[in-house]
Amino acid sequence: MSRTLNQTPVGKFLLAALSPTPQSQAALFAVFLLVYVSTLVGNTLIMATVSSDPCLRTPMYFLLGNLSFLDLCYSTVTAPKMLLDFLSERRSISYQACMAQLFFLHFVGAAEMFLLTVMAYDRYVAICKPLHYHSIMNRTLCSWMVAASWAGGFIHSMVQTILTMRLPFCGPNWVDNFFCDVPPVIKLACTNTYVVELLMVSNSGLISTSCFVILVASYTTILVRIRSPEGRRKALSTCASHLTVVTLFFGPCIFIYARPFSIFSVDKLVSVLYNIITPMLNPLIYTLRNKEVKSAMRRLRTKGITSRGKGNGLRCRES
């Protein structure tokens, strides 16, 4: 315990296996590779569609494109290393790489939480103040909100990473998860981590729970402000995709981070859900429920075949 806090004798950590047998590891490698490739393709397609189609140059789709970029980054923080571990007998990660993975995991994850909250505000203005929507949600404000989301994620992640790196790690070095995250890593510290855990739960748990409460309050306000049943159905249909994404993302995050860092066996499966599966589902949720995005994707697909781009733009404006 007398060891200085800025030194760590642990040079690497060992990660848990998702499955105990080589045969099942190979099968899981194929499944997760398909999921990761689908995540890359789906989110890249949404970013390309939003940036290239003039019909989608609105605040809503500007935020959607940024969400897709965050989803792509979020999955890339953990998925490539997990895929390599499926093919390895000894799943290890260096101390420096573990801290880097932990930092980017919380950086991108917190930025996505803040961005989802911004998207809820966008929907509130669009539905409750439609006449003032374009004056309120202008491109400058949207850009500042996205920048604030990234800045908030960076500050949150710096706090988490610095608190973790200040802990002494002198063994054991087996992380009870498939990647480096704060709860399983700080359990390996050879010192009392009660105060650090309390600070981290206050940080991560407060952010995830507060954003979720704001989101629920925003959608509740939307439904209360709209009097007619038909208007409520339309508003709920408009926000349903966002609500689905919010539930898939915030539910696991609150379960993992808004409680003391006691490790449960189900934690690993929950971590896989919001780190690997959810980033793949978001493009499907938004495209399957959004006629404008599907139409824009069809135009993008035929853009290299037909040269009638201006005609598409006119039809878009008229609609």
TrEMBL record:
Membrane topology note: Multi-pass membrane protein
A Pfam family annotated for this UniProt entry: 7tm_4
Keyword Membrane carried by entry: yes
Keywords of this entry: Cell membrane, G-protein coupled receptor, Membrane, Olfaction, Receptor, Sensory transduction, Transducer, Transmembrane, Transmembrane helix
Transmembrane region(s): 26-48, 60-79, 99-121, 141-159, 205-224, 236-257, 269-288
Domain G-protein coupled receptors family 1 profile: 42-286
Major localisation: membrane
Top-level taxon of the source organism: Eukaryota
InterPro entries: GPCR_Rhodpsn, GPCR_Rhodpsn_7TM, Olfact_rcpt, Olfactory_Receptors
Subcellular location, record wording: Cell membrane; Membrane
GO molecular function per UniProt: G protein-coupled receptor activity; olfactory receptor activity
Gene Ontology CC, one term: plasma membrane
Recorded family membership: Belongs to the G-protein coupled receptor 1 family.
Protein name: Olfactory receptor
Originating species: Gopherus evgoodei
